[in-house]
Specification:
Layout lengths: L2 E4 L9 H5 L5 E7 L5 E5 L10 H5 L5 E5 L2 E3 L5
Antiparallel strand pairs: 1-4, 2-3, 4-5
Bound molecules: iron/sulfur cluster (2 copies).
One iron/sulfur cluster binds next to helix 1.
Length: 77
């Protein structure tokens, strides 16, 4: 099963990942981070299909997707 990890301390609450996820399993928190942002969280991880669209879309490289033994993460150059 794919796994997704969102680093809430890198999230700025833009909500792009919530819109791009085909499974609609990412939503925004009701709490805020130390930087003052509502952050993205996966509310139904068992339905993740590992498409990685959320990680590709995230402008802050806050999302990692583990799928079929590989880790997909973008590097911030
Ligand atoms: S990998 Fe795809 S299905 Fe899974 S949370 Fe990200 S966008 Fe949604
Ligand atoms: S796309 Fe990235 S920065 Fe934007 S809400 Fe999702 S995790 Fe946070």
């Amino acid at each position: 099963m794919p796994g997704i990890r969102i680093d809430k301390n890198h999230c700025k609450g833009c909500e792009l990942c919530t819109q791009v996820c085909p499974q609609k399993i990412i939503s925004m928190s009701k709490d805020i981070t130390v930087r003052g942002y509502y952050y993205a969280q996966v509310h139904d991880p068992s339905r993740c299909i590992g498409c990685k669209l959320c990680a590709i879309m995230c402008p802050d490289v806050a999302i990692e997707v583990h799928s079929h033994g590989t880790v997909f993460e973008l590097v911030d150059y």
